[in-house]
Amino acid sequence: MSSNQFVKRSIEILFSYAHEDEALRDKLEKHLSSMKRQNRIVCWYDRNIRAGNSWNKTISAHLDTAQIILLLVSADFLDSDYCNSVEVKRALERHQKGEACVIPIILRKCDWHNEKFAALQALPRDAKPVVNWSNQDDALYDVAVGIKKVVVELEKGQ
Predict the structure, then answer these.
(1) How far apart are CA 34 and CA 23, in angstroms?
(2) Is residue 158 part of a domain?
(3) Contacts (Cβ under 8 Å, ≥6 apart) of 58
(4) Rounded to the nearest 5°, which phi and psi values hold at 123?
(5) Rg for the chain (alpha carbons), in Å?
(6) Considering the domain boundaries, does residue 3 fall inside one?
């Protein structure tokens, strides 16, 4: 196969979030629509689990395959045992091995600075919580631009 026939795989993005933040998760995914339409990314989150499938096994499988894992940080996220004991733990293991890029997205003001993921560069700019921006679309645009930069880097490595 010649290099101009090479077809790039879509980059899988997994959303790790608390259900209380689902509306913000949905808005963020809309800001990624251009890359989705171009088949550059595919987004996955737990609401995509089909009826009859094991939710634990399905989430685990996607935690093992996603190239980008977004941690949607809020007090509810920090309060979730599952998010922290399973999703964050596995995401950081893969990040440390260079198998995935973990990006904390600060949705709402909370005490996240001593969490295991606090050493990672967070979005939006200056880790200002999305809901604290005067315009949430500006915040989510800033997040989407940051994610797009990671996508471009990963595409270069494919």
Answers:
(1) 19
(2) no
(3) 46, 49
(4) -120, 155
(5) 15
(6) no
pTM for the model stands at: 0.92
Query: What DSSP line would sit under 79-105, residue for residue?
Result: H-HHIIIIIIHHHHHHHHTTS-EEEEE
Phi and psi for 157 in degrees, rounded to 5?
A: -85, -5
The residues near 39 (Cβ < 8 Å, ≥ 6 apart) are 10
CA nearest to 110, candidates 84, 140, 143, 142: 84
Residues near 62 by beta carbon (within 8 Å), at least 6 away in sequence? 12, 14, 44
Q: Nearest-CA neighbor of 154 among 48, 49, 30, 10?
A: 10
100 located within any domain = yes
* Range(s) of the domain holding residue 50: 10-153
pLDDT (tens place) for every residue of the chain, 158 residues total: 444 445 578 999 999 999 999 999 999 999 999 999 999 999 988 876 777 777 788 788 889 999 999 999 999 999 999 999 999 999 999 999 999 999 999 999 999 999 999 999 999 999 999 999 999 999 999 999 999 999 999 999 87
- What's the angle, vertex CA 17, arms to CA 15 and CA 18, rounded to 5? 155
Total length of the chain: 158
Residue 16: CATH number of its domain: 3.40.50.10140
- What's the domain count of the chain? 1
